[in-house]
Specification:
Strand order of the largest sheet: 3-4-5
Shape: flat
Distance between the termini: 87 Å
Strand content: under 5%
Oligomer: single chain
Helix content: 55-70%
Radius of gyration: 38 Å
Number of strands: 5
Largest sheet: 3 strands, antiparallel
Number of helices: 24
Structural class: mainly alpha
């Protein structure tokens, strides 16, 4: 695109290490908008790419851009303005605003010769006159549009806290590319999307492609000749005209049917041909609006994006940024969606752990305990177990606020009350190592359950444990079941506000595991007997104090 002299001058300007700032970009954009400057849109885009390329890693140039309005002005370089179509039978073609040149007059032929001279041009008919083809909306060259998008991504990486933060929620396509760059997963929809958001992004992409196909058909598709309607089938028993024998009527019916099938085949072939042409021409246009829903990068644009990210260190810059937008945390999204790409990233940069949300740290720590022995990702997960455990411990202690502490505990208790024995086991292990047994070492690996009521967040912690009590009592057995029942009995003094008697009665009545605990653990047996004795004592007291002698048992009993 650029002549050697222009390239030499551009590199000479950047060789001294001068910054490429907003003013430098503005000079090129203003020159491209000025008529008669000799700087076309294609040349201006190529010049900007060459200027910015001299600011990549390892070179003295520095890209210092801050104005987010540059992004919108850059997209003007990719706009495509359609021109007039050529008239049938003429070689004339003008711009969208030029005048229509007159058709070439036919050469004179000799007298008596009806054929025209070979160098003559046919006179265009009235319907074939040139017309201005206008697009229903602004369109762009696909190649240029993605080059501008890649250039904008580089600028956002050069200024993640300025330009990148300003367009994070304004430009969906650039936001999607920044998420791809941060996660290292260049796929569409992006790695943070759940199933509902994936479907929404796919629907938006399909609608955009349909609009591009319709625009391409309006601009480039040749007009289809009218299809002659097939002959109608003769009606049975039709009268009129000369008498026609049954054999002739059958022959006419078969001929009309064959004509109709042939017309249908022609229509199908024309539809297939039109579909192929529409798909071909739709690659020649793209919707210009940079604020449209996120677009999927085409195959030929992916290498350009990957090359730009590699040369300018965009991924590392976005991952390091924490204010005003923490791109890593925003890209993580839901826990289970980010696990596959976040594990190697956190293993390489363990300082990222302190920035992770509490839920994400809990999930990664549980995965480290669950998969650390399987050998699939054992080395990375075992390396992460210690720093993740420290982060979870800080969350539970309330170093990041009571809200994070309660969220962390609820996430771990969700696994404690899960149907899977493995998930319950690893969740209890995380809680024991993160909280400890405190002054309740006699309860062994369940000491964490009793320590919860001793800390500054006892109220919400007890409420969280009570919320999962029914599920825990329905699945656990042995020492774990005993510990939970004993702990729940103690939680009554902390304002638990739950039907403990009802839980115990339901447990004894429906689970054989409770009978085994009563036989095996003396303290558990004494607690159950005490609970039953107190309940009967209260029941008899209520009966004796009733005025009419009616039985007034507690509802739970």
């Amino acid at each position: 695109y650029l002549s050697p002299e222009v390239v030499r001058r551009a590199r000479l300007c950047a060789s001294s290490g001068a910054d490429v700032d907003d003013a430098t970009i503005r000079i090129v954009l203003e020159s491209a908008r000025t008529e008669g400057s000799g700087l076309t849109q294609s040349l201006a885009l190529a010049l900007l790419e060459d200027i910015v390329m001299n600011c990549r890693e390892g070179l003295p140039g520095n890209l210092a851009v801050e104005d987010p309005e540059l992004i919108t002005d850059l997209y003007a370089l990719a706009e495509f303005v359609p021109h007039r179509k050529k008239a049938v039978g003429t070689g004339a073609a003008t711009g969208a605003t030029g005048a229509t040149p007159p058709p070439t007059p036919p050469a004179k032929a000799k007298q008596g010769n009806k054929r025209k001279a070979p160098d003559s041009a046919p006179q265009p008919c009235e319907k074939a006159k040139q017309r201005i083809v206008e697009s229903p909306e602004r369109i762009a060259h696909p190649g240029k549009w993605w080059r501008v998008t890649t250039l904008s991504l580089v600028m956002c990486g050069a200024s993640p806290s300025g330009m990148g933060a300003a367009i994070w929620n304004r430009h969906p396509t650039l936001c999607a590319l920044m998420k791809m760059t941060t996660s290292g997963r260049y796929r569409f929809p992006t790695a943070d999307c759940d199933e509902r958001r994936r479907e929404a992004m796919r629907d938006d992409e399909a609608k955009a492609r349909a609009r591009e196909s319709a625009i391409a058909a309006t601009l480039f598709m040749p007009s289809q000749p009218p299809v002659r309607a097939p002959a109608p089938l003769p009606r049975e028993g039709a009268r009129g005209g000369p008498r026609v024998s049954a054999r002739q009527r059958e022959r006419q019916r078969r001929a009309a049917q064959a004509a109709r099938e042939e017309a249908a085949a022609r229509e199908r072939a024309a539809a297939i041909r039109a579909g192929r042409l529409s798909k071909k021409y739709s690659r020649c246009v793209a919707l210009w609006d940079p604020l449209q829903p996120a677009r999927k990068p085409p195959r030929d644009a992916v290498p350009l994006v990957l090359s730009a990210v590699r040369h300018f260190g965009t991924a590392a810059a976005l991952r390091r940024c924490t204010t005003p937008v923490d791109y890593l945390v925003q890209t993580a999204g839901e826990v289970k969606l980010s696990y596959d790409w976040l594990i190697p990233l956190v293993a390489e940069h363990q300082e990222i752990i302190e920035r992770l949300p509490a839920g994400l740290s809990c999930f990664l720590l549980l995965q480290a305990y669950a998969e650390g022995q399987t050998g699939t990702t054992a080395s990375r997960l075992l390396e992460l177990a210690s720093p993740l455990l420290n982060h979870v411990r800080k969350c539970l202690k309330g170093d990041f606020g009571e809200g994070d502490a309660v969220v962390t505990l609820r996430l771990l208790l969700a696994d404690v009350s899960d149907k899977s024995p493995g998930r319950r086991k690893y969740a209890r292990r995380v809680l024991q190592e993160a909280i400890g047994d405190g002054n309740h070492a006699a309860h062994g690996s369940a000491g964490w359950l009793f320590t919860l009521a001793d800390g500054p967040h006892a109220g919400p912690f007890v409420e969280a444990v009570v919320g999962c009590a029914r599920a825990v009592l329905a699945y656990e057995r042995g020492a774990v079941l005993r510990s939970f029942v004993v702990a729940l009995h103690g939680f009554r003094d902390h304002g638990g506000g739950f039907d403990f008697i009802g839980h115990v009665v339901n447990l004894i009545s429906n689970r054989k595991a409770a009978h085994d605990c009563i036989k095996r653990y003396s303290d558990f047996r004494e607690l159950i007997l005490k609970i039953v004795y107190e309940e009967f004592e209260r029941y008899l007291l209520a009966e004796s104090t009733s005025g009419n002698g009616a039985l007034l048992p507690p509802q739970s009993t």
